[in-house]
User: Fold this.
Amino acid sequence: MADERKNMKLSPEDVEKRIRHIKKGEKEWPGRLTDLAGMPEDLYVIGELPRDDAPSVAVVGSRLCSAYGHAQAENFGRVLAEHGVQIISGMALGIDGYAQRGALTAGGKTFAILGSGVDICYPRSNRKLYRDIMDQGGLLSEFEPGTQPYSYNFPQRNRLISALADIVLVVEARRKSGSLITVDFALDQGRTVFAVPGRVGDALSDGCNYLIAQGAGIAWSPEALLEELAVRETMASYARKARADHAKLLAESLPGLDAAVRGKDGVLHVHRQESLQLTLKEEDLSENARLLLPHLTSDPKGAEELNAETGMEPARIMDGLIELALSGLCEELGRGRFVKVR
Assistant:
């Protein structure tokens, strides 16, 4: 094992110079991980971290992929990267590696989430890809340097692959595969899932076709994902503006309110509201909030779904959601997905 590790590792000099240890709560900590449950307390990084202000797509799929899967993964990785999308994956053989190679070919950024220490290149056949990602993106792991690629590490790391993405794309996967574990994490985290359709009866496409039948987006081309990202960014922009407006109003109305109660974004958070014993009733809500409330349930919903159900403009939706959250009538789970709480 020692000899194998030596062959798989970077030189000691590279390791010492390039590995960074980042703890949760520090300035560099990825924003996409901040509000999610079950995230690690530490990350080890060689290279860069994904930018919070740039769109990200996780690409996952079969290690033993077909020529069709190879071509699709590389094409999606390349075209998305050409449009400034960060590609997140696990640097595994097959779909992962091809998508990340496509991003590198386009001159884009790609990030590998490893099931070992960041000083371990696994599989060894991806050594060139490993070094290229280090220089044109980043290698990330929650496992301490020197940790071997034990099989039980990989399902655990999959939750980080989905958490660091806005969209999870499954290119080719069997019905029972590790890629669908990543999809489960993505849905729990409020991420959007897309799948590349395949031929009926093709075992390597069974997983993707099943996901589409269950409501996943159809990745008919990279443009489908780019359109989705544009909508998500529009909604996110409205959300940021609505939060900023409410934070300003709160500061003007209650200038002495302690910052610890308001939260880092200035908005009065639901679980902190109880300490002030605010008593806001449904009849006191604005029209936007009243229209949205019947559409909120115990199942998380995002602004896109509420837009489809109500026909309300995105600005009105985000304004109403923030008001409902401030009133204690709904709660935000993950990034931009809300549930009714009473």
About this structure: The chain is about 45% helix and 15% strand. The mean pLDDT is 83.
